[in-house]
Amino acid sequence: MANEETESSKLADARAAFWRPWRAYAPNPPSHPVIIVSLIASGVIAVLGVWLRFSAPSPLWLDEALTVNIAHAPLGRIPSLLKRDGAPPLYYAALHGWMAIFGTSDLAVRSLAGVASVLTVVALFFLVRRVFGGEVALITSVLLLAAPFATYFATESRMYAVVMLEVVILGWGVVKLYERPGIWPSVVVALSSAALLYTHYWSIYLLAMVGGWWVVTLVWCGGRPTRRAAWWGLGSLFVAGVSFLPWLPTFLYQSKHTGTPWATPPGLQIAITGVLHFYDNPAANPAPPGPGLFALQVLTAGLVVTGVFGIARSRFVLELDLHSIRRGRFLAAVVFGTLAIGMIGAHLSKSTFVPRYAAVAFIPLIVLLALGTQALWSAWFRVVVVAIFCGVMLSTAIVWRSSDRTQAVPIVTVLKQQAKPGDLVLFCPDQLGPSVMRILPSDLGLRTFSYPRFDDPRFVNWVDYDQAIHATSPSKFASKVEHVVDGHSVWLVWSTGYGPFKSTCGYLASTLLTLPGWNGHQWVNAYQFRYFQSMNLTQFVPPSSQAHSRG
Question: Hey, which CATH number is domain 407-550, 3.10.20, 2.115.10, 2.40.10, 3.40.50?
Answer without folding.
Answer: 3.40.50
